[in-house]
Amino acid sequence: MYYTIRSLLPDWYEHCNPKLPFIKDYMNVSYTVVHPKLVEDMYRVTFVGVKKPHVTSPLTTALLFFNIYEMRLKEDCLIGDILVFDMNNAAMDDLLKFTPLHLKKTLTVYKNIFCLRAKRVLFLNSIRYLDNILAILKHLIKPKIFQRIEVHQDSEVLKEIFPPDQLPKDYGGNGPSLEELNDGLREKFDEYQNRFDQLDQLRVDESLRPEKLNNDEVLGFHGNFKKLNVD
């Protein structure tokens, strides 16, 4: 699936190289960054947020996630993920962009391709329309995973996860700021540029597959995302 997904989602994977201008521009107005220090129980924390309202791009956010995971396949060692979505600076129209189809595709890649496990999913500085997004997620993920989602009105919960010397400065700690982590991510993308260029050329010849892909509750019929029923 690591290779096959690139053909199943051409609208995503043909335009995901971090050197592309629209991805670089999005990194100037948003954060999708990984903290360098593991927290308790060997969990890795990823922060997602925007610097100002009305700039959110769900697709570009997903592509940044996947590019980061590509590098993590090479370097990282962890037991599980803690995903932190900071709603500060987000507007209602930012959340409206997250459609059921987009969320389903993103969850598929996260679970089936990178085989990562979200131990906690934190929404900080919650805004009103977030309930609608959670209602969609409830239909897309298993109940035991949905129970790991936490909604907080502020960011105080991070002080329970990070010691003061690692908590990002944005949240009152002495650790690296989200902007510093963002700058470090740019350097990492440059370091792995040859790898991303190589991935642009990799595609599966489905005509050589002995048997079709099995039907799957997430992928749909043989990887076809066009059929999606949401109650």
UniProtKB/TrEMBL annotation:
Domain CRAL-TRIO span(s) in chain numbering: 83-179
Protein name per its UniProtKB record: CRAL-TRIO domain-containing protein
Signal sequence bounds: none
One GO cellular component, as annotated: membrane
Domain of life of the source: Eukaryota
GO MF entry, a single one: phosphatidylinositol bisphosphate binding
Pfam families in the record: CRAL_TRIO
InterPro entries: CRAL-TRIO_dom, CRAL-TRIO_dom_sf
